[in-house]
Structure formats: C-alpha cells, structure tokens
Amino acid sequence: MSKPPLVPFATPGIGHALHIWQNPLKFFSAAARTAPLSRIKIGWKDACLVSNHELLYQILVPDAKKYDKGIQYERARAMLGNGVLLAEGDFHFRQRRLMQPMFNKPSVNDYINAMHTYSTAMVDSWADRDVVELYPEFYRLATQVVIDTLFSTKMSHQDVELVRRQMPIVIAGIEKRGALPPKLFDTIPTRENRAFYAAISDLRRLGDRLVDERLGMSRGSRSHTDLMDVLTETDDAVTRRDNDRAQILNEFLTFLTAGSETTPSAIAWSCYLLGRHPEIQEQVRDEVAGFDSGSSDVTAILKLPLLQAVVKEALRLYPPVWALGRRTIQPTVLGGYALPTGTQVFYSVYSVQRDRDVYDAPNEFRPQRWIDDAKKYPRTAFLPFGAGIRNCIGEHFAWIEISIAIVNILQRYELSLQPGQTVPPAAMGALVPGNLPMRLRRLVSR
Ligand code: HEM
C-alpha cells in the first residue's frame, strides 16, 4: 500500500507547519479537497489528515483502541496534567466511570437552577445597552456555570476575568504547538512562549486556590452532591489513591477548560445565525414564548424542535471543537492505507460537517433540515461532541446550558447585526466569532 496523497505546498524543512500556524481553518479546509485521507508534513515528519466522516467515525468508534490522543493533547499536559480529557487506558476508564453519573440526566437536573440564575442575571445586565459584545458575556456565563455546578464554588468577578484573559492564550498556544515540530518552538524564549507559560501558571494557581476553598466547605453549604464529592468520597481504594490532591487539581482544570472554551462559542454562533435570519429568530421566539427555563423539568427544552434544530445547525456549521487528532499505537489500516505505529492523524470536524457529498447547501444555515430531513444525514457526519469511548462527557450538560441561555435571550430581546456585518470564524483553539457586537432591542413582555 502506498502513502496517502501529499497536500500541496509543503515547505522544505517545516512542511505545512507555517500554513497551519497562520490559518489552520483555511489550511484544513483547502487540504480536505486533496483526498478523504491525505498526508501533511509537520517539519520532516508525515502526518495524516482525515476529511471524510466515515473514516473519522472509524477512528473514534470501532478502531478507538488502536489510537491514543496524540500530539495536540500532549501539549495540553502542562495545563491539564492527567485529567480525564488526557488520561489513557484503564486510568481513563476508571475516572470516566467515576464521573459519568454527574453528567447523567438526574444530576444535570440539579444544575438547572444555577444555569438559569446566571443566564437570567446576564440578560438582565443588558437592559440599558443597545449593543452588546456577546462572546465575552457567554464566556463569563459558561465559566461561572461549570464551576458552580460541578464544584459548588461561586467565582469572583476577578477570577472569572483571569480565566477569560488567560485561558484563550493557553488554548491557542496548545493548538499551535500541536502543529509544530516537537520541542523546536518551546526552546525559543519568544514573548508568545513567555505569555503561554505565564497563563498556565496563573490558571493553575487559581485552580489550586479554588480547590482549597472548595475542600474547606462544609457539606451543608452545598445544594447537591457535586463532582468534588465524587472524586474525594469514593470507597474504592484504587480510585481513592488515583484521586490525590494533584489529580483533583488536574480534574478541576480539565472541567474549567472544557466547560469555558466550548459552550460560549455554541451560544454565540447560534445568536449570530439568528441575528442574520430574523424570520427564523421570530419563529424560535414564538416557540419558546412562555417556556419556564428555571423549572425543574427543563429537559422539556430539548423537545422544542426549532430551538434544537437551530443549535444543531450552529454546531454543524461552527463546531466549537473544530479540529482534533489521534495517534496510532499499533499498525493500523485506514482508508486502504497502512499507518505505522506512531502516525499522527489530524481531523477537521469543520470540514466533515460541511461535506457537500453529505449535506445539500452545506455552507447555508438551514435548521429546518434537522426537522424535515434528519434521517437523511448519517450520524457519522455530525460529530461536534466526538463519538465512542472518548466522546464529550458534558454533552447533555451543554445542550441544556446552551438552550437555557438562548431561551432567556429570545424571551427578552430581538437580536440583530449591523447592516452588512459578517463574522468570520477564528480558530483560536475553539472556533470562536472574533468580534460579535449584537444590537439588542428590548421586547415588551408577550
Ligand atoms: C458545545 C459544547 C461542547 C462541545 C462542542 C464539546 C466537545 C467535546 C469533544 C469533541 C470532546 C471529545 C474530544 C476527543 O475526542 O478527543 C469532548 C470531550 C470532553 N468534554 Fe466536551 N464539549 C462541550 C461541552 C463540555 C462541557 C460543558 C463539559 C463539562 C461540563 C465538557 C467536558 C468534557 C470532558 C471532560 C471531555 C473528555 C471526556 C473523555 O475523554 O472521557 N464538555 N468535548
């Protein structure tokens, strides 16, 4: 078996690293046109790029055990240690099994009050403003929600701002380092490198303090069993040994990162698309009129068809976790090519979810497709939360959080963009709208 076709424009010595560094989204989207499985060069080393949904699904589900998480994730260890996102093998399995109940429906019901309260406070704070820069608002919301619900800790304004300032530096740094020849970049004392390591130190220090504060709380001060209880109170000796103080900090930082870097993007893109499509916005507003997003049975929110279709279509067009990777840990065959052990495989969920062989009008916002034609689309072609044993543990949490926020917004405001305003996606780790000033018109209650 020969090698997969090489994506054009590799530069001798650095390969495609510069293209990826400069504009990863553009590079991955252009490279997707080379072949469903193509080859790129990171420095002098070959890596693969998967742009086809069936091959991606094969990696994530049936062949999952043939891969580890690979180079991008290795770069994240300085921040997240061996938290559940990066853990491998039996250790991952034990941590995931321990935590899973906190993300099942009954537990997520315990988080609804906090999700509703923070998102109501957010929309109330916009009352006197005509234009709001939305993304930072959603970032604060998601950060407070994830730490309050899972660790019963109310973050101060300063702490939230520190996360908002430093976390994107860390995430973008990890992403870029994943596409560079190992170690080369880290050894040069650039301003960017110093900022990256300073941001990691700040966030780990913050996490350390918040973990101490949480561990010092009395049981009676919490409204529900939280993730920290689960990590610290297990009867199982092996799991207790696994979750020493250092590992608890790793898990805290893992959830801080995973919770704050993803849902803001999904809420923001949903609002952007509704701002661009006022007629759909009006239909969703009619659907959510009178819905009580603070009620304890808020799972009914997941049955509001148009709202869910809008969020799904936003996640298809702008998947927050838009590109990821894996690495083979044994000789593996993929797409008819033999991949030796240690082959790095990148994949672009963004390209897969805009594949014109799967989706008609793939670049258009058509939420109705998920109502009229949902069965037409293979589930392997919609993977914003990943799939298989490493899928997103927070998927249900995220759907509820995103839906509550959008309901609260649409019940109070009409959203519109400035005339002619378009917002190109920026791949800053997560796929985020760079600037998203949105005009708000306060609605009289209906
Ligand atoms: C729209 C929101 C979200 C998106 C698009 C998203 C996406 C993803 C994806 C694609 C993965 C799999 C990564 C891989 O295969 O390598 C993942 C894993 C994970 N997510 Fe999310 N996520 C979201 C929200 C959340 C939230 C709110 C939390 C926590 C409350 C969370 C916690 C995690 C954790 C801990 C993992 C690692 C799971 C494991 O490896 O067992 N995510 N997420």
TrEMBL record:
The keyword Transmembrane helix does not apply. Keywords: Heme, Iron, Metal-binding, Monooxygenase, Oxidoreductase. Its cofactor is heme. Transmembrane segments: none annotated. The keyword Heme applies. It comes from the Bacteria. Belongs to the cytochrome P450 family. This is Cytochrome P450. It comes from Nonomuraea longicatena.
